[in-house]
Please model this.
Amino acid sequence: MSFPGTAIRPAGQADLKAVADIYTHYVRHSVITFDETPRSAADWEQLLGDLTARGLPFLVAELSGEVIGFAYAAPWRPKPAYRYTVEDTIYLAPDATGRGLGSALLGRLIAEAGRAGKRTMIAVIADTGGDDTGSDGTGSDGTGSDGTGSDASTALHRRFGFTDAGRLTAVGHKHGRWVDTALLQRPLSALEPAREPG
Model:
């Protein structure tokens, strides 16, 4: 389920200001991204160019001409043997959470990453230990959600077949607190459509 009239489409240069604004909210007001300084316009342009050159998806959700969410699949690690593994990133505008938009973005992202020849998708979700104060609806430095906080992000990924792969304890420190990350993973296949069960 998603907002009626929402289009999920490839991101373009004209979308990057809205993408930056959405992300900046989470940088400043949450622990779900470990960035502490908002990314510049040049950073977003470079990321879009790099992902496009690699054939990896960078998507936006648009409603009535306004970008209200984004998602992309990026290389998991820079070493060459990891080239078939990607990490997902999903962020929604704060007023666009809890309505199925994360599902629409994640389903499309999984499908496009599989078509790009990738084998595994990793989700890295900030785990606030049930205290999701300030998380406002996305996951961490690599994931997002349909609701609020890390529990919703984890549930979203599990609905799409992600399974637990591990936990890193107190690896981030932001806004005066230590934050764990949960690792989840899912196999990808160009032949397997990415649909939310049920």
